[in-house]
Amino acid sequence: MFSLRYQLECRAKVAHWDVEWGVDDDSNLLKGIYEYGMGSWEAIKMDPELNLHDKILWTDPQKKPQGKQLQTRCEYLVKLLKKQRDKEELIAEVRKIGHSK
Hints:
Mean pLDDT: 89
Shape: elongated
Low-confidence stretches: none
CATH architecture: Orthogonal Bundle
CATH class: Mainly Alpha
Radius of gyration: 16 Å
Structural class: mainly alpha
CATH superfamily: Homeodomain-like
Order of helices and strands: HHH
Distance between the termini: 43 Å
Number of helices: 3
Number of domains: 1
Number of strands: 0
Largest sheet: none
């Protein structure tokens, strides 16, 4: 695993699923897709370090999150991370320009 201490820093909208879901779960989901790849939900579920074994891929297909909801959530989180990175790069560029004057 790349970093067990990784924590999502940007604000994400609430996931309305059949289980309590917070920033730690989002962070662990991102670590899981980094380690196993997008769509490898069973591997992510089975990784004890991610602590998602009792939160994803319920045996009842009506309970969320299932693969489709996980896919949508990951795409949303990756988009948030990209926006955060772009903002940080813009701020760094503005500071660089400001210091060169």
